[in-house]
Amino acid sequence: MKNRIITISREFGSGGRTVGREVAAKLGIPCYDHELIDKIAEESGFTREYIAERGEYASHGSWLASALSDRDYYGHSNQDELWKFQRKVILELAEKGPCVIVGRCADYILKDKQDCLSVFIHSDLEKRAQRIVEQYGERPETPQKRLKDKDKRRAAYYQFYTERKWGAVQNYDITLNSGSLGIEKCVEILASLY
Amino acid sequence: MKNRIITISREFGSGGRTVGREVAAKLGIPCYDHELIDKIAEESGFTREYIAERGEYASHGSWLASALSDRDYYGHSNQDELWKFQRKVILELAEKGPCVIVGRCADYILKDKQDCLSVFIHSDLEKRAQRIVEQYGERPETPQKRLKDKDKRRAAYYQFYTERKWGAVQNYDITLNSGSLGIEKCVEILASLY
């Protein structure tokens, strides 16, 4: 029963999603990444695009602007609603059976589960920049700018909903530098911990 | 030639030293921990006690007091002298052959070496408190207080001499929670990365 669930948090462009998919394939268990977005869409009625963006990222602009944006008279926002659906879906999936869950604060949502291995994947900026150009193609802004913006908004989202610091070593059972260790070695280590 | 050197940074009481010793024994390479202090003592003339304390810990009290303490007219301190000896000994050992080096900012000192695996070992406060009472016995202050004081002074020392944040995930190839994974599993993973 140990480490029945693996949650993977990752810096943008670190290959954390690929690590998750490959670990799941190796272990013969499902990996929830895009599938998570589909399930949340079904339950919540939010569009896939809204969920992909607002279920993991603070909005652009300042922290304060982000915290206050889209709030109604009572201080609620659509993003808060989405958080509740996201949390519910992740808890349900974790009850259903062994799996890998990528992103969406699953490490925090499942932090009290004994059989959960919490993982963070990171890499240096240069290797990540190279990876996102290969994976997602060229864009008008530099890859470094995209990376920094994505990480900053992921960190802000995480901090807002979990009151923990994204990427702080204490939140994880293991953190891996995919740039120096290689994707394959990361997969091997995580599979060995299952 | 990959990962010929393993540097282990660790939270106080996490068992990082034990992990280092056991990995080294498994790989049949030397582990420098207390031995490092002996070598630095030989080269520098400082006492073992001074090196143990001031080669890894900022002094008690505020950060500013620590940064300014013991400095002469030119702004130099014995601690700076010790840092230079420590740095020299660590660089020499790393040149000499494969080894495990525990603590003393070795991760930073060897950061430009390609064949160096940088590791951080941590654990939750409760497990560490239990461990230090078992290992080092009861003391007048609570184990939690001792842990926090030690970690705080290690972090301050590290930050002062390296200008990096101690325990920040980006400084390491791998971080391991020895409390949740167990010492034995940590040893196994690190040996597999050699």
Structural class of chain A: alpha/beta
Number of strands of chain A: 5
Mean pLDDT of chain A: 89
Walk across the major sheet of chain A and give the strand order: 2-3-1-4-5
What proportion of the residues of chain A is helical, as a percent range? 40-55%
How many helices of chain A? The count is 10
Greatest interface by residues involved: A-B, 20 and 20 residues
Succession of helices and strands of chain A: EHEHHHHEHEHHEHH
Shape of chain A: globular
Tell me what the structure shows:
The structure is a homodimer of 194-residue chains. Chain A has 194 residues and is of the alpha/beta class. Chain A is 54% helix and 12% strand. The first copy, chain A, contains 10 helices and 5 strands; from the N terminus they run βαβααααβαβααβαα. Chain A has helices spanning 16-27, 34-44, 48-54, 63-68, 78-96, 106-109, 125-136, 143-162, 178-181, 183-192; strands at 5-10, 31-32, 99-102, 116-122, 174-177. A 5-stranded parallel sheet of chain A has the order 2-3-1-4-5, sandwiched between helices. In chain A, α1 packs across α10 and α2 (34-44) crosses α5. The radius of gyration of chain A is 16 Å and the shape is globular. The relative contact order of chain A is 0.22. The model of chain A has no long low-confidence stretch (mean pLDDT 89). Chain A binds chain B through residues 120, 122, 124, 167-170, 172-177, 180-181, 185, 188-189, 192-193, and chain B through 120, 122, 124, 167-170, 172-177, 180-181, 185, 188-189, 192-193.
Task: Give a brief outline of the structure.
Chain A is an alpha/beta fold and 194 residues long. Chain A has ten helices and five strands, in the order βαβααααβαβααβαα.
